[in-house]
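Q: Predict the assembly, please.
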Amino acid sequence: MEKTKDEFALIKRLQTMFTPKRPETIIGIGDDCAVLDLGATEYVLMCSDSICDGVHFIYNNSNKKLIGRKAIGSVLSDIASMGGWPIAINIDMGVPQYTSEKDLLEIAEGMRFLCDIFNVDIVGGDTTKANLLWISAKAIGKVEKDKLCLRTGAQTGDHIWISGQLGGSRYGRHLEIEPRIPEARWLVQNFKVNAMIDISDGLVADLFHILENSNKNAEIDTFLIPVHKDAKSLDEALYMGEDFELLFTLPKEESLRLMETKSEYKFYCIGQILDESQNPLLYARKQDGTTAPLEIRGFKHF
Amino acid sequence: MEKTKDEFALIKRLQTMFTPKRPETIIGIGDDCAVLDLGATEYVLMCSDSICDGVHFIYNNSNKKLIGRKAIGSVLSDIASMGGWPIAINIDMGVPQYTSEKDLLEIAEGMRFLCDIFNVDIVGGDTTKANLLWISAKAIGKVEKDKLCLRTGAQTGDHIWISGQLGGSRYGRHLEIEPRIPEARWLVQNFKVNAMIDISDGLVADLFHILENSNKNAEIDTFLIPVHKDAKSLDEALYMGEDFELLFTLPKEESLRLMETKSEYKFYCIGQILDESQNPLLYARKQDGTTAPLEIRGFKHF
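A: Predicted assembly structure:
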């Protein structure tokens, strides 16, 4: 499921093809959400994500409520990664013969479960026949203009943080996605967050998205990464993805303040942003102080 | 592809399950777009639509640019049907092996073609592997609060209008969709439109959506319906769908004024809204003045 170099090149071409032209579009293709100024006090966030039987889950082996939960959860996680809160979701579904009415209602129950927790409305959608189940969820949300978090904001000297344990999510945990909306809101309300993303492609790939967009190098203290018990190795914490934790950078003084701040949430400081670079490099630092470049691989969306 | 009674029942259950709770949600599931008050002067419109190989087009037989155009066009038509204008679109795609990079770029070209005409930005999306090509487009737009057109607004005595010839679109014309945005904007800027919808399910089915939502009966003068040359019969103009013309109702005095107003657009008056009804009936009136109930059938989305 990793995208190839050709696919990256295609995505770049599409991004160029669709350069935004309207004054409302603050950020188009290239971050977790598009950012629009629609004339309200806050920015409007807009994002979409899709899941498909055989790629993101195996229908016959999966709890149907969790399929619905996952479909909603990944877009809510995108909204969180911008520092925002969700408002409304649209659902498009390809519905195959093998999906019974009972299954559909369970999928909808799973969606409602997360919608109720995070106070989001499902406001529409469309179903179509298909030979495989697929679900495309599109969310809109809002964020205060001065609290918007982008991939482009990382500064040299920033500390790198994550919001939870990583690795092994694809063995099943990813379906029980818990979008980090309260964590993100608490962070942006109390700290100056320079850059943020959610970890869908994997820690290394998503940190690399920040580095590419901010033109920086970085090093991570691999021995500080909290590896989830589901993971079979540190490698899975670095590369497996679908963790849906927040990955963010704070100026050093804000980082030190976060370390000393009591909160109901748990965050982990795992590295720092280094100097400017047009061709970013990411280093792994071991406990003995030696560093080595980390291989960049993982998923990528456009 | 017609939905069954069971499917209608399921959609009703989903609609009940997802009753909107947030104060921003003015209209949730049930119209062409959701309507949100996000704190701007205008309402924000939000809609989505999806197309799938084998259901909405046959990939091998289709011009790839037209597939992209159709994917965008149907959501733009939904925005038009609310009286609004589009701003931004998100695209999710399931991309199968049989889709070459050249094909993908042509699909994107077709999207850009309509985006350029109607000044819309594509601001993001997601691709995933799939075994069939599917495209889900989500659009947001805006409409002045006093110009919003809903399915619920038809009044007894309103005249029923359409914006173009109907029938035979599914034989191929539907891919060359021309969303009626300028027409819709001209209408709401110059006339009091009581109810509006776009014809995707078919004239009868979509007029019936207005009747159900407005609790009214209606009659259409079948001999006044402009049947497209692509159509093989009046039946196809009534039921085939995918015409993507506007279907709207005007108070009688506004209707008379429209008949006398010069415009670059062509509209056709084809019937009138009758009395109140909890179980709407739609009548066909022939040129000899006799009427008979019309059978209600066609597509339906939720």
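The longest helix of chain A spans residues 64-81. Chain A has a mean pLDDT of 92.
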